[in-house]
Structures are given as structure tokens and as C-alpha cells.
Amino acid sequence: MSFALDGVGLTHANGFTALSGITLRANKGERIALIGPSGAGKTSLLSVLGTALAPTAGVAEILDFGQNLRLTAGLKALRPRIGTIHQAPPIPGRQRVVTAVLAGRLGQWPAWKSLASLLYPLDVAGARATLERLDLADKLFARCDQLSGGQLQRVGIARVLYQQAELILADEPVSALDPALALATVRQLAADAEARGATLVASLHAVDLALNCFPRIVGIKAGRIAFDLPAGEVSEALLHDLYASEGQTLPTLANEPRFTTLAAANDPATRAACC
Amino acid sequence: MLLNPAPPRDPAARGRLSGALLALVILWPLFRAAEFKPGALFDSSNLKVIGHFLAGFLPPERGAEFLAYLGKATLETLAIATAGLALACVIAVPLGYLATAAGREQPTLNPLTRSLLTVLRGIPELVWALLFVRIFGLGPAAGVLALGLTYGGMLAKVYAEILESVDPAPAHALRRSGAGRPLAILYGLLPQASKELASYTVYRWECAIRASVVMGFVGAGGLGQLMDQAMKMLNGGEAASILLTFMLLVFAADGISGWLRRALDTPPAARASPFGWRSISFLLVLPSAVIASFHWLEIDFGELFTAGAAHSIGEFVAGFLPPDLSSDWLARVGLGIWETLAISVVGTLLAAASGLLLALPKWRAPFSFLLNTLRSVPELVWATITALAVGLGPFAGALALALHTTGVLGRLYAEALDNAPAAPGHALRLAGAPAGLSFLYGTLPGAAPQLIAYTLYRWEMNIRMAAILGFVGAGGLGQLLYFELSLFHHAQASTVIIAMLILSIAVDQTSAWLRQRLR
Hints:
The complex is a heterodimer.
Chain A: E1 3-11, E2 17-26, E3 31-35, H1 42-49, E4 57-62, H2 72-78, E5 82-85, H3 97-102, H4 111-119, H5 124-133, H6 149-163, E6 167-171, H7 179-196, E7 199-203, H8 207-213, E8 216-221, E9 224-230, H9 236-242, H10 262-265, H11 268-274
Parallel strand pairs in A: 3-7, 3-8, 5-6, 6-7
Antiparallel strand pairs in A: 1-2, 1-4, 8-9
Chain B: H1 13-33, H2 44-55, H3 64-99, H4 111-122, H5 125-136, H6 140-165, H7 169-176, H8 181-210, H9 212-216, H10 223-232, H11 236-265, H12 277-297, H13 307-319, H14 327-359, H15 365-376, H16 379-390, H17 394-419, H18 423-430, H19 435-469, H20 476-486, H21 490-517
């Protein structure tokens, strides 16, 4: 088992309830997409899984570590095993790409190695190999403030790939990428998780991307789980119901011809070709 | 890629290594010249002397007679600082306007104004004060004029840079729609820059209060003179009371600065007049304080513009010409330059290191109190204390600079770290990085340009202070100048003043270049 949430609720200090009654389990190696309208609680759910926020109700067990997430000694050992891709890449502009990627292993490296790596990057080969998978190897020694928004987002992904986490949490990981690149990048993430047997949970804005690349889809609405189904069983009616507050059209990758209709996107042949 | 080629070398490594070596090659002799030996601090006989001296500080003197003196001296110091700063503003606003590139469509270098500012700033206030004493005699007038000129030059430069650092787009838009440059600045830039301008002006006022120690040397009265007497008579209790007064004044200046910033942040009431009770009371208090200050000090600037005064100024200045350029003397001045540079560099570096350490802890209260205390004691007073701790010489000067500057930089660093984006460090902690490493990889890179800029600005100030510290025996150019002036060797003194000017210009240029390079 990778994680198990049992009746988890999250109420912020200002009284706003972001999550309530979330019960969700994932086995090791599962790939789950979280979809739902904005403000539904996708980011809050990922924050609970990433131990950034402790649930205010229910029990969360993450990578066999549970009950009391406030225990700092345990958290220290747990957190290097969780990799989070943030919506806005949390990387200082003046840092070089190579350093930003190597920072993924700060939780695993001994302190002397991390310190020395500030003076001379200690795993240039590893950083470059990771960046190559995202088509960014030429930016290895560039400074992050010289990158475009999409390139910076992929550096954030490269950092988590380099971390080699057992549980990868991705919050809108491809929001700044064009459709073709978004697809390729999500495929890289999925392939990496599959190859290493890691669990991948990604919140995605584009429904077609979620349906194509993830075997299991969890719909979130108003802080609750609306449905939790294999991708093949997600019907158009369910989706329209989920996004009822956002109008008639479902959010998809912008005008990507292959996915103009959901039916085509959900076609097994496309799915096979995609992931 | 078919083969996996050897990983590329880090292209920045060579530059970093040579940069580090260069820094070492430059810094090593500087540390030697500053006679850097931290061991002297822990020498048991020195510790005993300083222990005795500091023990004498307790309890602070509270006699009614002394407190009456202290009150009068405090008012005098406030009056000198206020009058000096008022004069400085009169100089700084027009010169800053002329010097700044803000609101111009074609940036100009304006060499005339800029070099005038450089001369005003480059000669330390103490030197100006000693010159004016010859014209006005002992008393506050020389001090006020000296403060006005030096701080006028500093304020003008900083005003110009603050106006250049805010977003120029609003002013450009106004100019393109036909507004003149002054109005474009008032409407387009001032609203963005007002908080910075206000807090820097109050900070300068606080510096002017501390500069009264310097003014004590020219008999301008005030806390400085009282301090000088107390130290000479080794009366620790009185010195402690005076230092406590300095602390109170500095905390008060902090309070005024915070109040002004908050007032400028408050959205105005919904009526046509932008003036609320705050601005009206401020506009009433400020001019009356300035008028009261000049009145209290009984300064008659009319004297400055009589024919007799012009004659004596002319004669006095002529006495300094020509400067002594004999090779013997030049060699000694060169040594003084090197020593002054060493004091400023070592003092600033020590302060940067300890300021950063004190800026880091999350629980601020005790540390900001410590930093404020370090800051409120003037460098010259620190120098008399450090001279007891490590003996007379450049190291005492460097330590004195370091102690005061730690207070200033620590506070600025803490603010900069607080304003640096929090997300990168937070994300690294979520990925399991220890707190220290998340700081180094996540938070520090975001704050570094600010930290470097503050440190280099401070170095520019410290080179001027290092030049003065010699007056209390800390070596360098100041010691030479003090000696020659007291012997009325004007030709030699003028060489030293020119050397101070050249040194401060060189440091300004180096600092600007480093800021550009390290951005």
C-alpha cells in the first residue's frame, strides 16, 4: 500500500473547509489523476498527501507512516520519499538549472555533499540525464531566470524525477506547456513512475490528458470525492456533472486534433499509443 | 544520443575558482594590514582591563545634576541633528533632482552634479567640521554646516538612486502625454518611492544624532562632548547613561520611521483633501522643530556671507595649497590609504558574517534588540572600547566598525530574508531537505542580490568612517590627518584630505562595479 486516507477532513484556521470525508487508498505503483473544477480541493488533497498540511479530521497513512504526522523525527525520514511537483515551480531565479535539479536529493545526500555541491555540482551526469528526458539538456548550466515559463516548469519536474521518490505528487504539472509538450511530459512522468514502481498522483486541468495517461481517475468536487473509477468507466455524463459549475464545455488540452472528442480520447487504441 | 559521453564540465567552475583565488590574494594582505588577530580579544590581561572598564559602567549615573546636563546635551544633539538634516535636505533635493536619471527620456550622466556630490560625500563630516571650526570658531555652527554638506551629498545620491530603482513606466507615460519632468516625477515616481525616501531620511537623521559624537571633537556640545569627557575621566557610570540615551534616541527614530511608513501606507480618506490629522500634525511639527533647532543653537549664517568671512575662508583655504607632494610624505599617505582600506574591508566582512548569523534565527525579539543596541552605539565610542580590548591600532578600528555595522546589516539582512520568496525553501523542506540546506538552496539565492547590495553600500559608508577612526588612535588616514592638523601642517593635511577623497571615489566605483557583476 502506498497511502490510505480514512475520512480525512481539512478545515483551515479561518474556518474554510477544504476537504471533508475523503477516503482514498492507493497501492504501490498506481497512477491516479485528480480532476475537478478549480477550487474543488485538488491542491489541498495533494498537500495532505505531501505532509505539507496535517488533516484536521480522520487518519492519513502515507508510505506506511501514519497516525501522527506531527512527529518530526518520522517526517524527516518520510519526506525524502515523497516528491512534489508544485504548480508554480519553487525555484529561485538566480539558481542554475543544474543546482535546482540536484536540490531534489538534499533529503538523501549527506550534508557535506549538499554543501560541496553548491561550490561545484557533484552529479552533473545525473542532472543532465534527467534533463535529457524532458528535452532540456541544453539548459543544464543556464540560470533559471533565463528560462521561459514552460522550461522552468519542466525543471521543477526534472528535480522530482531526480529525487526518485516513491510517491510522486503533481499539482497541475503541465499548466504552462503547449499541448504536444504537455502530453510528452506527462508520458515521461508516467513512464518514470511505472519503471520504478512508484505511485503517481497528479491533478490535471485537461480531462483528456487525464483519461489518456492515467488508469484511475478520481473526481473531486467541493472538497469531496465525486467518483473514483478506472479511466474506461468515466462517462461523459459524470464529467459534465463534475464540471457543472464551469459551463458546458469540458476543459481539454487546447485544440489538440487527436483529442477533439472525448470518445476518441477514451479509445483504447489511443490510450495504448499514448501511455 | 547513442553513446553516453563523459559528463560536461561545469563551465562556471573556472570562473568561480579564479574569483575565489583573486579574493584570497586581495584579502590576505588586507587582513594582515588590519593586524587581524582575534586572539587578542581573548588575551587574559586584555579581558581583565575591559572587564574592569565595563564593570565601571554599572550602575548608570542617575544624579540629578548629571541628568540635567544629560537632558540639555540631548536637546542640543537633537537640535544639531535636525538643523543639519534640514540643511542637507535643502542641498539634496535640487542636487538629487539634477543627478537622477529618473523621469528623463534620454539618460544623462550629468558629470558636473555627480562630481559635486562625490566631493561633498567623499570628505568625512569630521574633516568638514574641523575646517569650519577655523572660520566659525568652536561651537555648533561648524557641526551643523559639516553635517549639512556631507549628508546633503549622501541624501542626494540615495534619493537619485531610489527614484531610479522604481518602475519608470508611469513617469514615461506622463512625459509622453506632455507633463514636465518635475510633475512626471511627482505624479509618477514619488508615490512608489515615498516610503523608501521617508525611511532613508529618518535613518540619516538617526545617523546625524550618532554623528554628534564626532561633533564633540569640534566643541559643538551635545552628547558627544559629554561622552568625550566621561571617557577621558574613565567615568563608566556617566558613559553608560549617555549610551542608554543614544539607545533611546535610536529606538525613537525607529518608531518615527515605522510610523511614517505606516502613515504612507494608510489609504487616504474619501474626500478631496489628501491631508488627514497625521499629515497636518506632521506638517506643523516639522518646520517648528527645524526653526526651534536653529534658534536654540543660535546660529547666524549671515556671518558666512560677510566680506570678512569670505576673506578668512579664502586665506584659510589658500593655506592648504599647494598640497605636500614630496615622495616621503606620499609614501606615508599611501601606507595610510592601505591601512584605511584594510580597516574598512575587514570591518565590513566581519560585520557581514556576524550580521547574517544574527539575522537567521526565527525568534526575532532578542536578536533585534541586540542588533539595535549594537547599532545605537556610535563607531567612535566602540573604537574607544575596542582599543582597550585589543590595544590601539587598525584592528581596534576594524572591530569597532564591525560591531556597529553588524547592528545595521543584521537588521537589513533580516528584512531582506523576510521579503525573499518563501516557496522555494518550503518546497525543499517538503522533499525532506534539512532546514539549513533548504535555506542555502531555496531562500538564500532569492535574497542574495539584496544582501550583497546592502553589504557593498555599507562598505562605501565604512570607508568614510574608517578614515575618521584614526582620530581616536585606530590608525589609517585619520591618524595622519589629526596629527598634522593639530600641528597646523596644512600642506600635509591637504594631501591626506585629497587621499581620502580619492579613496572614497575609488571605493564607490569598485562597489558599483561589484554590484553590477554579482547581480
